[in-house]
Design brief:
It is built from five helices and four strands. By secondary structure, it is mainly alpha-helical. The chain has one domain: Orthogonal Bundle (Arc Repressor Mutant, subunit A).
Length: 120
C-alpha cells in the first residue's frame, strides 16, 4: 500500500475533567522534548508562541502534575522539558494510538478500498 493509500487513525481523548488530549498536544510535547523550548516547539509546528503557551497551560491544568516544566532565562538561558508525568502521558497516548490502529486495521483497509485514488 502506498502512503497515499494508507489510512490512519488520530485519537482525541476526552478527559474526565473536561479537558482534551489529542494529536496537536502530543505533537507539541514531542517538539518541546526535541527542541528544549516552547518557542522552538512552536516554530517547528508553525504555531504561534501564545497558542503554544495556552495549550501547555491547558495540559498542565488537566493533569495532577504539570506535563511541561519551564525555567526562566538567565545565565543558563532557560528552556522547557517534559516532566516525568509528561513523558508518561505522551508514551501512553502513543501506545493507545498504536493499539487502536492495529485493532482497526481491517476496517481502515476497507475504508481505503472505497477511495477514489485518481482524485487529487
Amino acid at each position: 500500500m502506498t502512503e497515499r493509500e494508507a489510512a490512519s487513525l488520530s485519537i482525541r481523548i476526552n478527559l474526565a475533567n473536561g479537558g482534551r488530549f489529542g494529536p496537536g498536544k502530543a505533537a507539541l510535547l514531542r517538539a518541546i522534548a526535541s527542541g528544549g523550548s516552547i518557542r522552538a516547539a512552536a516554530n517547528t509546528l508553525a504555531m504561534s508562541y501564545p497558542r503554544a503557551l495556552k495549550l501547555i497551560e491547558e495540559m498542565n491544568a488537566d493533569f495532577r502534575e504539570p506535563l511541561v516544566a519551564s525555567s526562566v532565562g538567565g545565565s543558563d538561558r532557560g528552556g522547557s522539558v517534559l516532566s516525568a508525568t509528561g513523558e508518561a502521558v505522551l508514551a501512553a497516548y502513543d501506545r493507545a494510538c498504536r493499539e487502536a490502529e492495529a485493532a482497526a486495521s481491517d476496517t481502515l483497509h476497507e475504508i481505503t478500498s472505497y477511495q477514489d485514488l485518481d482524485s487529487p
